[in-house]
Amino acid sequence: MKELSLHILDIMENSVSGGASRIEVNITINEADDLLAIQVIDNGHGMSSETLANVTDPFFTTRSTRKIGMGISLFKQQAEQTGGAFNIKSEQGKGTEVEASFGLNNIDRQPLGDVAGVIVNIAASYSDIDFVLNIDTTEGNFHFSSHEVSKILEGLPLNKPEVMLWLKELIQTNMTDLKTTN
Amino acid sequence: MTKIKTLDDLRKLRDSLRTDMNIRENSEHPDRVVQIRVAMATCGISSGAKETMDFFVSELKKRQINAVVTQTGCMSYCYAEPTVEVILPGQQPVVFGHVDPVKADEIIESYIKKGELIDGIIPVNHKEVEQDNRRI
Question: Is B57's CB within 8 Å of A165's CB?
């Protein structure tokens, strides 16, 4: 995966598989502290202590379709190679919280990528789940909730290509204003 | 039109799109529109599935094809990612493998527009895959 947004997408898909009804992505950028932090929080089934202990092992997965699970281990590697850190907390019946920090200006940090695209694509696919995006930078902040937007659209489906392109533009415009394009 | 930046901008667009009653009617009957599902597990994402999904979203709008595009979990064809399931109205699902934007263009022009089958079909659909997994 070449962009951090794709890692976020991968983790959100895990949250969907984990039965979450709300998935929140928090992105914090702090130039002064040379910090980019990404947090994905869900209220899904959570993991057992055994699964949690093995979750960063690329040769561990809970799935039966294949025997490896690279997603979390790749995300952890990306954070650590920029001098950042990775942490995951999970409790059965309550949900999971994945957090990674990156050296903002580290040469090995992957670009943030198309966050707007991944949020809109997944929100359009699972209308029952509320996908929340919070961006916090020194320039200001931005909040997006797919369920809030659904109410505003009054029945227009989020998975119509026209609507998806509007929502991508809405998020992208605000992210550009907050100077979070990369 | 200026950039979409606020929820008020969305409200204005909603009102303009609402005049197209066909869209609302079809949204209540998804079996009447083309349905496209892109597999978006780690293997798919790493192979470019998001780029494929973005291509379908933008091109279906440009080519004015009435369709819905969604992503889904693993279809179990890691060797053939990105994989895409296409359901034409009233027909059985068809799964295509190795769908990059070039292949996606061919799917739109040949299969979706004309109903012609093209190379790259995986001879099973997503429901059958899920049933197979349950048997394991």
Answer: yes
